[in-house]
Amino acid sequence: MTLTEKLRDKISRAFYSHGLFCASYPIPIILFTGFCILACCYPLLKLPLPGTGPVEYTTPVKDYSPPPSDPDREQRDQSEQPDWYVGAPVAYIQQIFVKSTISPWHKNLLAVDVFRAPLSRVFQLVEEIRNHVLRDSSGTKSLEEVCLQVTDLLPGLKKLRNLLPEHGCLLLSPGNFWQNDQERFSADPDIIKTIYQHEPKTLQTSATLKDLLFGVPGKYSGVNLYTRKRMVSYTITLVFQSYHSRYLSSLRARLKLLHPSPNCSLREENLVHVHFKEEIGIAELIPLVTTYIILFAYIYFSTRKIDMVKSKWGLALAAVVTVLSSLLMSVGLCTLFGLTPTLNGGEIFPYLVVVIGLENVLVLTKSVVSTPVDLEVKLRIAQGLSNESWSIMKNMATELGIILIGYFTLVPAIQEFCLFAVVGLVSDFFLQMLFFTTVLSIDIRRMELADLNKRLPPEVCLHPAKPAGRGHRYERQLAMRPSTPHTITLQPSSFRNLRLPKRLRVIYFLARTRLAQRLIMVGTVIWIGILVYTDPAGLRTYLTAQVTEQSPLGEAGLPPMPVPGGVLPAGDPKSTFSIFPPDASKLAENQTLPWESPDIQEPQDHLEGAPHSSLLDIGPGPEVTWGPEDEELWRKLSFRHWPSLFSYYNITLAKKYISLLPVIPVTLYLNPQEVQHQQEAQHYWPLKPSGSGTAQGEDQGQAFEGPSRTQVHGDVTLYKVAALGLASGILLVLLLFCLYRVLCPKNYGQHGASHGRRKRGDLPCDDYGYSPPETEIIPLVLRGHLMDIECLASDGMLLVSCCLVGQIRVWDAQTGDCLTLIPKQGLRRDSGGVFDSQESWEQLSDGGKGSLEELGDNAQLRRLLGPPQPPLFGDQPDLTCLIDTNFSEQPQPPPLEPSQPEPRHRAGCRRPHDPPGYDFSRLVQRVYQEEGLAPIPLPALGPPSPVPSFHGPEDEACSHLEKGSPVPTWTPDTESSVWSLDLQGNLIVAGRSNGRLEVWDAIEGTLRCSNEEVSSGITALVFLNKRIVAARLNGSLDFFSLETRTVLSHLQFRGTPGRGSAPSSPVYSNSDTVVCHLTHTVSCAHQKPITALKAAAGRVVTGSQDHTLRTMVLASGGQDGAICLWDVLTGSRVSHMFAHRGDVTSLTCTTSCIISSGLDDLISIWDRSTGIKLYSIQQDMGCGASLGVISDNLLVTGGQGCVSFWDLNYGDLLQTVYLGKSSEAQPARQILVLDNAAIVCNFGSELSLVYVPSVLEKLD
Amino acid sequence: MAERETASSVPPKCGPYISSVTSRSMNLVIRGVVLFLIGVFLALVLNLLQIQRNVTLFPPDVIASIFSSAWWVPPCCGTASAVIGLLYPCIDRHLGEPHKFKREWSSVMRCVAVFVGINHASAKVDFDNNIQLSLTLAALSIGLWWTFDRSRSGFGLGVGIAFLATVVTQLLVYNGVYQYTSPDFLYVRSWLPCIFFAGGITMGNIGRQLAMYECKVTAENLIKNEESKNMFLYRKKKTPRF
Does domain A3-46+305-453+502-534 have CATH number 1.20.1640? Predict the structure, then answer.
């Protein structure tokens, strides 16, 4: 034993015991595993939620210095700084927030004056800022030195070239609309148009140019003709490269000095750092989506291979959960041990899943499922595990090796990936062994329980007295069954519910309960809630704003109602409070001394005047107030505001941060005088206060032109949104439809033959390419026929087969014994009949009768009762010795033969002692006679040889018999082969090609009667309750009736008048005389040969080659490959289905579906009520018609030396059973299903009797 | 070339069974089209991956840049992938050793995912130097082959394709038809052969999987012909009198 083998053995043993352990304690193990997963995932809570919103972090302004670029870890952990707060920010942003209003408001001011004058002041302000220079001991610092210098705009932004600064400081203000040129501004006839000209026409989430330049959200700016607030606010945005505290404070102090803000309570102590996540652009999204699609395809293709389990979906889910939670565990473990994931989780996730893979799980399932079903669940799990242990370990070792190689590439990203993969692999192995195995064991246990539950009721119904077990299979049931298998009881349509496949049921369940939608909705609501709450522009800030607004300070946020100007005269402009006249800024030198702390006291002195003066104003302008909501107005901007601004200069903020300095408030009060001299240039309509009368009505239309236009704009946007929503809805529906088509296993109707055909020699598989574990069963082989078996018939107890030469054999369907042999008549005439000894004949009849009488007894008892029956096992070679003894007794019977009172036709009467090889021996008997009398077994030829010398005396006996036996009918041509067979009770009806109808006794092998009136071959037969219906090749239907008489009689049959009297056949019988009447004939039922004939419930259904179906037809198949569904009662065609490329060869109905097979070797299953093709099964060559229905949902098909079991409702291949090695080459041409779950397969010249217990246990 | 050969060699063998011929060539065409589409799609996606690294981070119109840069690249990739995908099963058939290793769609999907991953790595991961990048990618490609193919013919074909494609690219770049943003080895990126090799293996894998359907179809056709003949004879035998 080599080392490998030892290792292998050990691993296998370890897996075995592990499997036992898992299957024994499923619940504790699952709980333990769940706990492990949760424990390992706990560190994940620290990781941030996935999302692209920016994150912020606040530090005090005092003693601020940029964080070091390489911080030591401990310090960061203490201070709870975020990970990204490292190094200097991309930029410092200083916003100078200007609020400006005209005070007092004069009644003859125009609407446009509300923002014209305030906007005009921006140019002065920008000048002031640009010229601000800090002079201190260390020298001078101007804005140019500290600000962020920008270069060209991106080439794609040509239209913004004049509006955004280039080659200089990044300083944004509304003045940029006019290139910071006061002249242009005053020359501009329509300010609104200028401002809005770059607004996007479409819906856009990113920042617009107006927002960028104004620095405040659009609705706060007040640049609007329809505003009532009459207050304009905008910001001047300065972007600094570096933080220069003294310069900033001097700038702040100076601006406050120049434009003091009264009642300003802004806290200016916090610096806000905003970190931006990585942007996901469309360029990155497409590959990402592709990888995810590939991932889902992989998962789909993998999980659909799971089969033969109770719940496919459950196991598939378990498999996916295994992989996913192993990944989560790996991330959690890595985080626990200090490795922070730097890779983009969403990007590497698909690759990790693919690397870890679902293969092991599937292999495990397949291995466990293919273990013998009769084992205990524990043992099955253990065995399945240990079978696959070696390959699992090998695969895992290989993968670990590959990943370790990857680890030594020394590329950080790959190393990290490999680390995750290794930990993921190990945890995946752990989960497979504990979690998945246990789930599998639970599933298999459930399946067995379900099987048990489902199997019990029928057993109880059928055999109330019998103990539940398998014994009932061996018991004979009544040969005469009250209902024929063809009886189809059509339920009312409301009761006819097709049993849906599990997949569909799951989907229906989901649809009914709307579980998925609800879950998704709840998830989305929670997600949105979290995002809204944590978003910088979101609920949290809004709530704080709300809270503060309720305080009395915030009350002033509501603008006072505009008082009609006409009522109150305009106040004296002189008394308007104005700290600095407009040209005051020119007086200032634009220089400030370094102030350590800006003196706010002085402006506050002025402040006191403000309310006072506003009281004096009769038409008060809106008071400029500063509330806490102004402190961080930038939060109300789009979160893409800063990234898009920087992106114009090709600076990315992704994974970086910017620092926002506290805003500098600037308040501007303008007096109307100043405003009015500006207004002269243009003719503008005066503002009409909304409360005033109807004067100047014609102007009103013009005045509201602006707002109405924006309204129209809003309407268009609304329509666009609606259209977009509609389009996305349609897309979603299409997507769902596609998804449904992918998920739905059965593509109705269009399922072509190109898909499912399996290659010869390949494993049989179903439409999904899945081949279940095949098993092998040694069937009971019924050998004896020389040629191919042509017809088969059975009534459950007896099995009658007929081969091409016309030899009929009767078999016991339970044991496979050949009970009777009815040889071909032509040969018989040559070689003579075979007569047995009277004893043996009696024994046989005893046995036969016994078998019929002892219906209720079990098989063993019956065997005991029938002592001469041991040779029943005719195909066992060792029975030749019995034949030998028989042979020695042979001389005795001949004397008895002639002494029999009546010459009986015991043509086929063979004792079971005579093995099935009899016919063959007769053919070669001459040879044997020459060679000697010794019994020669001929194993090479299949059946054990009978006693060749047996025929010597028999020939004489036969010839003797034939002389004395008046058998006028036994002169047919040698070609008369049996074309159809049917069986009921102990009577066999055989229809021959020469038109002869023969009734045989199945047990005794005697010809009871025959009818040869019509010479057209009988193509189909139905034997039903003493009535025989024969369909002939010429399309006529003959109805016969059988009568049993106890008296010996010689009957002449009447021929039908149309056909003239045919020679009648006398029938001899000793005890019961069976008489066959031709009651009537339908001479031209069809124009062409009748191919199919079914009888049910007193009606007869026929199918013919002439594509017509006469009388009562349920379903008919024609030569053109079409199937018609007929109403039995009305005769109307219910539906017409084009089914096969060739002829339809056979049709079977179950309560829910129709199964048809055609010359194209395709078995199609149709929904009976709708006529929709559910699916089709591709058969092996020559096995097209070999199908049988075991129960309502189990279909058996034949293949090359095997039979396959299909679930009718699902179209799934359940199992393939190989019938021994010997019959491998032979295709199963015909399949006959017996009552007792035995299946008779016709493999050319031999029959196989298959009991399929394992499959029936799997039945659900 | 090889496809035409097989296509032309089929009809005489099949003789009068025209239907089988049409279905066979139809099948070939369908396979080719499918492979072509896959190739185009992969080329577009991978091109997107590649340009992510070198273009400006906020390209004004990404989609336009994909199609404008070199419109002929995706069709070329598609054609090449179709040829490769048809060549692999063809060579398998000629060598008489059908590829049986992991012949299922889930494995193919895995292979494609790994291929995209290799591209992703080459585009996104920061390597110290190009030799390291090339070596890593080579190891990954060989690993791909070993995991999903393991056939000598596949390896040989992959190497051949990689060599040929690299030479073609070299010529194109040398003549200035196409350009790389940062060539590091004689005008082209040095990891290109590895990508080509992995791509060849992947497309071969897809092609083989698709060819399995074709095998099934042809086997079915042959069987059907045989069988209809049998059935014909059988029917003649069965209705001699009529």
Answer: yes
Interhelix angle B105-124/A282-303, rounded to 10 degrees, is 150
Report the mean per-residue pLDDT for chain A: 65
pLDDT over 90 (residue B36): yes
The interface predicted TM-score of the complex, written ipTM, equals 0.80
Residue indicated by tokens 């601006």: A255
Pairing of strands A591-592, A133-136: parallel
Q: What does the angle CA B80 – CA B85 – CA B89 come to, to the nearest 5 degrees?
A: 145
Amino acid found at B218:
T
Measured in whole angstroms, how far is the alpha carbon of residue B19 from the centre of its chain?
27
A746 contacts: CB under 8 Å, gap ≥ 6: A501, A1174, A1175, A1211
Residues from chain A contacting residue B69 (CB–CB below 8 Å):
none
For β-strands A664-670 and A92-102, DSSP reports them as parallel
What are the pLDDT digits (tens) for A331-372?
888 878 777 666 666 778 888 888 888 888 888 888 888 877
Length of chain A: 1260
- Whether the pTM exceeds 0.80: the reply is no
**CATH code matching the domain that covers A798-823+975-1045+1068-1110+1117-1251, chosen among 2.130.10.10, 3.30.70.270, 1.20.120.640, 3.40.30.10:** 2.130.10.10
Q: What is the pLDDT of residues A1157-1197, one digit of tens each?
A: 776 677 777 776 666 777 777 766 666 667 777 766 777 77
Q: How many CA atoms lie within 13 A of A1245 on its CB side?
A: 17
| Cβ(B161)–Cβ(B196) below 8 Å | yes
Candidates B49, B127, B223; nearest CB to A287: B49
What is residue A815's DSSP assignment?
T
- Angstrom distance (rounded) from CA B114 to CA B108: 10
> In chain A, where are the structural domains located?
3-46+305-453+502-534, 54-64+83-280+631-680, 798-823+975-1045+1068-1110+1117-1251
Considering only A711-715, A764-768, A1084-1088, which range has the smallest mean pLDDT?
A764-768
Residues 251-280 of A with CB under 8 A from B: 279
- pLDDT tens digits for range B197-226: 999 999 998 998 888 876 665 666 666 666
Q: What is the 3-state secondary structure (H, E, C) of A838-902?
A: HHHHHHHHHHHHHHHHCCCCCHHHHHHHCCCCHHHCCCCHHHHHHHHHHHHHCCCHHHHHHHCCC
- C-alpha A106/C-alpha A569 separation (Å) is 8
Confidence of residue A948 (pLDDT cuts 50, 70, 90): very low
Is A106 near chain B, with CB under 8 Å? Answer: no
| Angle value at C-alpha B241, between B240 and B242, nearest 5 degrees | 100
Q: Report the gap between the CA of A972 and the closest CA in chain B (Å).
A: 15
Chain A positions touching B219 (Cβ under 8 A) are: 757, 759-760
A412 has a chain B CB within 8 A of its CB: yes
Amino acid at residue number A1055: G
| Element holding A324 (H helix, E strand) | helix A312-336
> How many Å separate Cα A48 from the centre of its chain?
32
Q: Where are the domains of chain B?
A: 30-48+75-217
Q: Is the pLDDT of residue B37 over 90?
A: yes
Q: Is A944 helix (H, G, I), strand (E, B) or coil?
A: coil
Beta bridge partners of A1212: A1207
**Is the preceding omega at residue A662 within 30 degrees of 0, hence cis?**
no
Answer yes or no: same fold for A3-46+305-453+502-534 and A798-823+975-1045+1068-1110+1117-1251: no
Query: Which tens digits make up the pLDDT trace of A159-208?
Result: 777 778 877 888 888 888 888 888 888 888 887 777 777 766 544 555 67
The answer, for B105 touching chain A at a CB cutoff of 8 Å, is: yes
